[in-house]
Amino acid sequence: MNNSLKNDLLIRAALSQPTERPPVWMMRQAGRFMKEYWEIKNKYSFLEMCKTPEIAADVTMLPIDLLDVDAAILFSDILVTAEAMGGDLSFEQGVGPRFANPVRNQQDAEKLSVDCLDRLQYVGDAIKVIQQRLDGKVPLIGFAGAPFTILSYLVEGGSSKDFKLTKTLLNNQPELAHYILQKIADVTIEYLNMQVDAGVNALQLFDSWALALSWNDYQEFSHKYNKYILSKLKRTVPVISFCKGSSVFAPLMAEAQPDVVSVDWNADLLNIKKSLPAGMAVQGNLDPFVLYADKPVIKKKILDLFERMRGEDGFIFNLGHGIMPDIPFDNVKFAVETIKEYRY
Predict the structure, then answer these.
(1) Which of 2, 141, 165, 270 has the most CB atoms lying inside 10 A of its own CB?
(2) Handedness of CA 151, 116, 178, 195 (dihedral sign)
(3) Is the pLDDT of residue 2 over 60?
(4) CA 329 to CA 132: how far, in whole Å?
(5) How far is CA 5 from the centre of its chain?
(6) Is 178 helix (H, G, I), strand (E, B) or coil?
(7) How far apart (Å, rounded) are the C-alpha atoms in residues 32 and 37?
(8) What share of the chain is helix, strand, coil (3-state, %, to 5)?
(9) Pick from 93-102, 130-139, 317-326: least confident
(10) What distance in Å separates the CA atoms of residue 166 and residue 163, rounded to the nearest whole number?
(11) CB–CB of 127/142 below 8 Å?
(12) What is the spatial distance between Cα 22 and Cα 47, in angstroms, rounded to a whole number?
């Protein structure tokens, strides 16, 4: 797998092999902080962009062409699985994702389809187009949303600040929650394995809203399903596990046996690394708000992190969460250049 890649830094780091410097990519790297993204976005709806392989490839390539990062990540959305299962999904400017048919009871849950991989074929098609464009320059990361996070969107009908409906479901109707989570997990396994078959070089599981959960609820309603998914994946490519809350949940995340635990910015990365099993890599964990700062500050914060991680194999540079849309492009480019100049 590494042999066909001209730059395999990310794969080596994910497998805890030695690297000359930390590889860099950033969550939401193909996105709203780039004027080139908006030139595409102003012509198409968000879902059209996701579902048209050539357009998804155009957007995926932006950070490769403009930032020269060490990995591409498929341009898509974590909610495409929920849509394929029957969610009536739309994206509203300034509001975010919306499901017109939220899942609130057993009847709603029974309508969710698990035989829906054919409705996600456009993702496999996009992966093939992207890999032709990349031509082995850097690895391509595929991804999916983790079951708890997808459940929360389906139950809330969109984004939520407090997850009140979701937590009420977990507390009052845990059997129904498990029924929905199992369906999502089964679809996610098929979907990620399809991405491996289509040619991705790595996978990331995004549990964006795990931070909403208590330790016990995370164990029962999130970790259990993430572990199940990872046990059923074709492990021919490295798997990265990310959640907001990883600074707390890292020990449980490690139990699911990903190759890499991606860490939010609340933890000391070296401490997390040393707490994980030998040979398990870490990814992270710069606070994305640092990228609003003056360039000397950006450089210092990155180099401080690198000095902390000096001598550690298995370290991928990333942010603790995604890039915000109004971060100056020039600052992101400067951060990438700072990282690429660094040598252990």
Answers:
(1) 141
(2) negative
(3) no
(4) 27
(5) 21
(6) helix
(7) 6
(8) 50, 10, 35
(9) 93-102
(10) 5
(11) yes
(12) 33
Q: Which long-range contacts (CB under 8 A, 24 or more apart) does 240-243 make?
A: 240/14, 240/141, 240/202, 240/203, 240/204, 240/205, 240/283, 240/316, 241/204, 241/205, 241/207, 242/27, 242/204, 242/205, 242/206, 242/207, 242/283, 243/146, 243/206, 243/207, 243/208, 243/210, 243/211
User: With contact defined as beta carbons under 8 Å apart, do 8 and 139 qualify?
Assistant: yes
Q: What is the pLDDT of residues 244-272, one digit of tens each?
A: 999 999 999 999 999 999 999 999 999 99
Cβ atoms of 112 and 86 closer than 8 Å: yes
Determine contact, residues 178/148, Cβ cutoff 8 Å.
no
3-state secondary structure of 204: strand
What is the per-residue pLDDT for 92?
A: 87
Count other C-beta atoms under 10 Å from residue 190's C-beta.
16
- Other C-beta atoms lying within 10 Å of the C-beta of residue 143: 21
Strands 239-243 and 260-262: parallel
* pLDDT tens for each residue of 80-114: 999 999 999 999 888 899 999 999 999 999 999 99
Q: CA-CA distance, 264 to 272, in Å (whole number)?
A: 11
Q: Determine if the peptide bond prior to 216 is cis (ω within 30°).
A: no
Query: Residue 344 has which token pair?
Result: 């252990």
- Per residue in 221-249, pLDDT (tens digit) is 999 999 999 999 999 999 999 999 999 99
Please state, in angstroms and rounded to a whole number, the distance separating the CA atoms of residues 238 and 258.
8
Is 165:172 a contact under the CB 8 Å cutoff? no
If one counts every other C-beta atom within 10 angstroms of the C-beta of residue 168, the result is 12
Containing 242, the helix (H) or strand (E) segment is strand 239-243
**What is the per-residue pLDDT for 1?**
45
**What is the model's pLDDT at position 344?**
81
Nearest to 126 by CA among 174, 73, 176: 73
Helical (H) or strand (E) element with 281:
strand 281-286
Mark residue 86 as left, alpha or beta (left: phi above 0; alpha: psi -120 to 50; beta: remaining): left
